[in-house]
Amino acid sequence: MIVDSSTQLVFPDLFYRLSGFAAGHDAFLKLEGFNVTGSIKLKAAIGMIEDLEERGIAVPFETTIVESSSGNLGVALSLVCASKGYRFICVTDLNANRANMRGMEVYGAEVIVVDKPDPETGYLGKRLQVIDKILKVEPNSIWLNQYANIANKMTHINKTAAEIAREFDKVDWVFVGAGTTGTLSGVAEGLREKFPQIKVIAVEPEGSVTFGGKPGPRAIPGIGTSVKPKLAKSVKPDEVVTISEMDTVKACLAFAKDYHLLVGGSTGSVLAAMKQKAGAFAAGDTVVAISPDLGEKYLDTIYDPSWVDANIRRSAKTTLRA
Question: Using CA atoms, how far apart are residues 273 and 283, in angstroms rounded to an integer?
Answer without folding.
Answer: 19
